[in-house]
Design goal:
This protein has two helices and 60 strands. It is mostly beta strands.
Length: 673
């Protein structure tokens, strides 16, 4: 099995325009859905995500740049990427791979996409190496789950969607359906392969067995002899040097045919639990070498499928494999959670190749008040590759802190500084504490669990928010089982937020002694003026129900509370009795997602939302837009963390693209109006 060197990496300044003030700093990695290499220059690769984004590298994965000209909805999955080969590639002429004239020429790219949740999707095309993209009209609205280019005629494209099979013979300008309309079986496509010599011979894999056409789609034949019935066919590959030799990856296993799919035989050697094979790749130098990327790692056969060896840990989910045509021992994996992994020794060892690429869903971003330069980022849905990351150098490098968390998501973070420094993490299974001596997370929390918790609810409380107003004061946890209070972050007592246990997801304390509590629940925002013994709904005077995103109490004025909400920013200066809805430099009613009040300079209040980042230098009376109008790379900011001092370092987290650092090391304000 491969050994893994998980190096989070040091910062490489990525190519950017002169006006770009934000630099992506990680933590790098996340979900990489598709990957393709330029046949003229294998060091140039393109990567697709499950959030409708594309990245490019020109140095073999040493650094990645997001292609901001590709504008797809965030719930669109980029499942397939194709590069049209140059004429010299088609003619198999000798190429000088580092010829500047050839390397710099624009590349024709195609991207096939489908939508999570809805029926959207389609095929997009770029004629300038990914800088700009056009949606191909003939496939608009089609959830494209498979896309292939004919090796012998690159202008021929086959797209497989949930609705059937479509063909273009003019590089995507025009499309026609080549499967029977409304066919009960030729739908719900998942894979497509085209004969390397004859573009009219097409193989498709559906959610129920494979099919073949030998005449460009005029007629179709089911090709399931030897395949277990009701097999979803996830992947399909044709041997380029012997077109009668094919492999398919199905939910029932991997199959091989040496008769152009007339019959199949099941290949043994891959565990049944690993049968969801996302991709099959043949080594072009030796077709007996096949790689199978599965939901339980990467498998290799060197004898045409007679025996298989797992090259990676079982926990790795492989979505794509790209072989370097110059050296078959050098290849890349596109993975869930881990991004891109690279091996240069045939799979004995792997190293991350993610610099500049981040598909991390950050759930909390926190500055350590005791040490300038140190920040913490919690992430969701990344399993062994997720958890908590920390940086001691303002994001230049990150260290993963995951031991003891297992594959748990981290929902919230809190730093305690008295009587000693401690780091707490809220998870779906309660609150974990990080041991700096042992380098491991431990669940030391004890919960007063209500006996009348909702039917089916876990006995553990999912800690959505952790809060302490000042060092030494009470600690609060807003959880799936209600609101809890603790003197030390270990023993938790439930507060009667509601008559029945319900979820609370945000909490703050204000007023003299912190006796006034505000808690956001799924039904209403509640307020208590007696340290949590009794509660009443909070009326913001907005005229309609609002969704609270963030609560921020003033660090020196106990009467002041800011609320970031779906209807903008609200402020109370009298412990929640009266509320003011901003204006004052902020777009009225535009959603605000984050509030940060500087602990060193409480008059400095920074907010972020759909309309951008705004800062107040007078305690919140007036806000001015910063020059970062739209957030990092045009992405909306979900979290901010600020170390105020001489450097005024600002880190910002978007919804799905990890953490960015302000390149100017300060947030410049726009010119006053």
């Amino acid at each position: 099995m491969a050994s893994l060197f998980l190096l989070i990496g040091s910062l490489v300044l990525l190519p950017s325009s002169a006006t770009a003030d934000w630099v992506p700093v990680g933590p790098f990695g996340g979900d990489a859905r598709s990957l393709v290499a330029d046949p003229a220059n294998p060091d140039r690769m393109y990567l697709g995500t499950r959030t409708g984004q594309l990245y490019e590298t020109t140095d073999g994965g040493k650094s990645w740049t997001r292609l901001t000209g590709f504008l797809a909805p965030p719930n669109w999955v980029v499942d397939d990427l194709l590069i049209e080969p140059s004429e010299s590639d088609q003619a198999r002429k000798p190429r000088v791979l580092n010829n500047p004239a050839e390397l710099s020429q624009p590349k024709v790219l195609y991207a096939g996409m489908w939508s999570l949740g809805s029926g959207g999707g389609g095929v997009f095309k770029s004629s300038d190496g990914g800088r700009s993209w056009t949606e191909l009209v003939g496939m608009a609205g089609q959830p494209v789950r498979a896309l292939a280019m004919a090796p012998s005629h690159p202008r021929t494209l086959i797209a497989g969607s949930l609705d059937g099979v479509f063909r273009s013979d003019d590089a995507g300008e025009h499309w026609r359906r080549v499967s029977p309309l409304g066919h009960a079986e030729i739908r719900n496509l998942e894979s497509v392969a085209i004969d390397p010599r004859n573009p009219d011979i097409v193989y498709i894999g559906t959610w129920h067995l494979p099919w073949k056409t030998a005449n460009g789609g005029k007629t179709w034949t089911q090709i399931h002899k030897g395949i277990i019935d009701d097999s979803d066919v996830f992947s399909l590959v044709v041997n380029p040097s012997e077109p009668n030799n094919l492999y398919i990856g199905a939910c029932s296993g991997i199959y091989r045919s040496d008769t152009a799919a007339a019959e199949w035989r099941k290949i043994q050697g891959i565990p049944s639990s690993s049968r969801r094979t996302h991709t099959l790749v043949l080594d072009p130098r030796d077709p007996a070498v096949v790689y199978a990327g599965t939901t339980e790692g990467l498998f290799e056969t060197r004898d045409g499928g007679q025996s298989w060896t797992r090259l990676t840990p079982q926990t790795w989910v492989i979505n794509a494999v790209v072989l370097d045509p110059r050296d078959s021992r050098h290849f890349y994996l596109a993975m869930d959670h881990a991004g891109v992994m690279e091996t240069q020794d045939g799979g004995k060892t792997f190293q991350p190749a993610n610099q500049g690429f981040s598909q991390r869903q950050v759930s909390r971003l926190l500055a350590d008040p005791s040490q300038p330069g140190r920040f913490y980022a919690a992430v969701l849905h990344d399993g062994d590759f997720g958890g908590v990351f920390t940086t001691k150098d303002n994001g230049t490098s990150w260290q993963q802190l995951t031991a003891g968390l297992g594959e748990r998501d981290v929902l919230s973070l809190l730093i305690l500084t008295q009587p000693a420094w401690r780091l707490l993490a809220g998870t779906p299974d309660g609150v974990f504490e990080y041991s700096t001596e042992q380098g491991v997370w431990q669940n030391r929390s004890r919960w007063e669990i209500p006996l009348n918790r909702p039917k089916g609810a876990s006995a553990a409380a999912a800690a959505w928010d952790l809060y302490q107003r000042r060092p030494g004061e009470a600690i609060y946890a807003a959880t799936s089982l209600g609101l809890f209070e603790s003197p030390d972050g270990r023993a938790w007592k439930r507060l009667p937020l509601a008559s029945n246990p319900g979820s609370a997801y945000a909490v703050a304390a204000l007023g003299e002694g912190g006796r006034t509590l505000v808690a956001a629940t799924g039904h209403a925002t509640m307020i208590s003026r007696d340290a949590g013994r009794s509660w009443a709904p909070l009326d913001f005077g907005a005229g309609s129900q609002i969704k609270v995103h963030r609560l921020a109490a003033h660090s020196t004025n106990p009467e002041v509370l800011f609320v970031a909400s779906s209807l903008g920013l609200f402020r109370s200066t009298d412990s929640g009795r009266h509320w003011e809805r901003f204006g004052r430099g902020l777009p009225f009613s535009s959603p605000i997602l984050e509030i940060v009040i500087s602990p060193e300079n409480p008059r400095q209040v920074t907010v972020a939302g759909v309309a951008g980042i705004f800062r107040s230098l007078d305690g919140g009376d007036r806000f001015d837009r910063t020059q970062e109008t739209d957030g990092p790379e045009g992405l909306p900011v979900r979290f901010l963390a600020i170390h105020t001092g001489q450097s005024d370092v600002v880190l910002a987290a978007s919804a799905m693209n990890g953490v960015f650092r302000n390149g100017a090391r300060a947030l410049p304000l726009s010119q006053p109006r």
